[in-house]
């Protein structure tokens, strides 16, 4: 089981994400944004952070980095991609996921643990939680306010592509959405950080199952 973690200038969760993948049994290569090709991997992780200083819009410059053509090709060929926080922002900016992450409704950076509900078990990432399970994960962002037009939101809900919802919406996200899946359920973007809640030393291991099950599901695929 092999994973790549993309590193942009300003990424600050790339080591954490790589470690979470490794603890789940994957071998991980970190890949610089200027590279034009990915190593042969099953899963690409796009980490949290402040790529290119969040200039222009969070994730907008990163989405146009050379490596993102390879990430797009990987996803379009049916590969798995997990984008966390800034990674989710990058995924919307690449067009691999619909919608956009706007400034938090309260205009403040929010850094705390929030309660979430797993909305679908129909993905490698969420299967082991079971639909309806409540978990807690940290958030740390100023642009986590998920926006999409009503037709897109209706489609996401109708096709069961909402992965996680906030129980108490912290940032104004449409329909309390905290994470969404692509139609083939292999691309997941989420604002909460499962890699920051994935070992005992974190004081919260709710994120560990996401990595463990994803590794198992990909090994079985
Ligand atoms: N933790 C992160 O990935 C932060 C994402 C982004 N820079 C924001 O603040 O919205």
From TrEMBL:
Quote the cellular component terms of the Gene Ontology held in the record. cytoplasm
List, alphabetically, the SMART domains matched.
GATase_5
Name where it's found: Cytoplasm
Q: Which GO terms describe its biological process?
A: 'de novo' IMP biosynthetic process
Q: Which residues form the active site?
A: 85 (nucleophile), 193, 195
Per the record, what are the reactions this protein catalyses?
A: L-glutamine + H2O = L-glutamate + NH4(+); N(2)-formyl-N(1)-(5-phospho-beta-D-ribosyl)glycinamide + L-glutamine + ATP + H2O = 2-formamido-N(1)-(5-O-phospho-beta-D-ribosyl)acetamidine + L-glutamate + ADP + phosphate + H(+)
Under the heading InterPro entries, the entry gives:
Class_I_gatase-like, PRibForGlyAmidine_synth_PurQ
Q: Which UniProt keywords apply?
A: ATP-binding, Cytoplasm, Glutamine amidotransferase, Hydrolase, Ligase, Nucleotide-binding, Purine biosynthesis
Pathway stated in the Swiss-Prot or TrEMBL entry: Purine metabolism; IMP biosynthesis via de novo pathway; 5-amino-1-(5-phospho-D-ribosyl)imidazole from N(2)-formyl-N(1)-(5-phospho-D-ribosyl)glycinamide: step 1/2
What is an example of a GO molecular function annotated in this UniProt entry? ATP binding
Q: Please, which domain of life does this record's source organism belong to?
A: Bacteria
On whether Chaperone is a keyword of this UniProt record, the answer is: no
The catalytic activity of this protein is classed by the Enzyme Commission as 6.3.5.3, 3.5.1.2
Q: What is its main location?
A: cytoplasm
Subunit text: Part of the FGAM synthase complex composed of 1 PurL, 1 PurQ and 2 PurS subunits.
Q: Sorted alphabetically, which NCBIfam families does this protein's record hold? A: FGAM_synth_I, PRK03619.1
What function does the entry list?
Part of the phosphoribosylformylglycinamidine synthase complex involved in the purines biosynthetic pathway. Catalyzes the ATP-dependent conversion of formylglycinamide ribonucleotide (FGAR) and glutamine to yield formylglycinamidine ribonucleotide (FGAM) and glutamate. The FGAM synthase complex is composed of three subunits. PurQ produces an ammonia molecule by converting glutamine to glutamate. PurL transfers the ammonia molecule to FGAR to form FGAM in an ATP-dependent manner.
Q: Name the chain's protein.
A: Phosphoribosylformylglycinamidine synthase subunit PurQ
Q: Give the organism the record lists.
A: Pseudoponticoccus marisrubri
Instruction: State the gene name recorded for this protein.
Output: purQ
